[in-house]
Amino acid sequence: MIDAFFVAGTDTDVGKTVASKAILHAMAHNGIATIGYKPVAAGCEETEQGLRNSDALHLQKAATVECCYDEINPYALLNPASPHIAAEHDHIKIDYRKLSLGLEKLKKKSEVVLIEGAGGWRVPISKDDCLSTWVKQEKLPVVLVVGIKLGCLSHAMLTAESIINDGLEIVGWVANRINPGTENYAEIIEMLTDKIPAPKLGEIPYMPSIKRNDMSKFINIAPLRSKA
Residue 192 to residues 143, 163, 185, 189, 220: CA-CA distances in angstroms? Predict the structure, then answer.
């Protein structure tokens, strides 16, 4: 079984956290010890405990292994902007070594670490580099989340091409219905199934809120468990 994988989105606001939560719930139902890792999170809120990101908090709650917040979100950035802009505003340089050390620590505590990205595949973390460089460095398998809406076919196919051209394997994809009024939904799913060279892990229906308690029924983790 895969011990760590990266959840990438075709864009920002396509439901990476919704899909990640569903995958973590499905793994919990199968008795798998999990941790959710959000290496870089922009758009945090100031709290008495420090900066906190809502996506990271959802991952922390959905996982089965307890970790302190700083372990699952080493780079918490204040501004709700592209990570390279938010990091510059906070006078922070994102260091891949810190991300890798954090990942190795979490692997020792769990069976599977789900790593949620930020934005799309080529999201920049500095003026010169993207988070995908770290994913390539770690040779992480990728789960692709597609927000089903007008224009998603091109975004999905281009993202899949980029991930594969980077030498990484897409081990599954998730369809997340972010627009309840999307026309030709079935035809979109049919084409994505044909064009993305990986099994579909599930389809998540439109949900106005991520606060749903149990989302395991939307996800089939069998393809992830079958990977060595």
Answer: 14, 15, 11, 5, 17
Q: What is the dihedral of CA 197, 201, 207, 212, to 10 degrees?
A: -150
Residue 143 phi, psi dihedral angles, 5° rounding = -105, 125
What was the pLDDT predicted at 110? Answer: 98
Burial class, 31, CB count within 10 angstroms (exposed 0-12 / middle 13-18 / buried 19+): exposed
pTM above 0.70, yes or no: yes
Of the listed ranges 161-170, 178-187, 194-203, 210-219, the least confidently predicted one is: 210-219
Integer Cα distance of 51 and 73 in angstroms? 10
Name the active-site residue from 16, 21, 38, 149: 38
| pLDDT tens string 63-73 | 999 999 999 99
CA dist list (Å): 165 to 76, 160, 162, 185: 30, 8, 5, 28
Relative to beta strand 50-52, strand 45-47 is antiparallel
Catalytic status, residue 38: yes
